[in-house]
User: Fold this.
Amino acid sequence: MEPLLVWLFPLFEMLLALGGLGLFWYLFSSIQKDRPVGIAFTIVGLLLLFLTPLLFFLPVPMTLYALVQYVSPGSYLFQAGALLGVAGLLSLTLKR
Assistant:
């Protein structure tokens, strides 16, 4: 394994965590509560999270499924999708 990758993987995970904290800060520190923003975060997050199962069961070309399988392992796509989905759901359910 390349020595650069040993340093980049934790760095990418830290950037994902910082992005999630920034997202939560943005959603919960705004004055007004935007329901469309919470709905958009929830839908996009759940689509990213369940992208592989959806492509497996929907009638799409196998090349698209293979492309997602090629891109997603070893990446943080599922963690980012879960983070977006949870942020959107919390934005919709928590009262201010």
Observations:
- The mean pLDDT is 79.
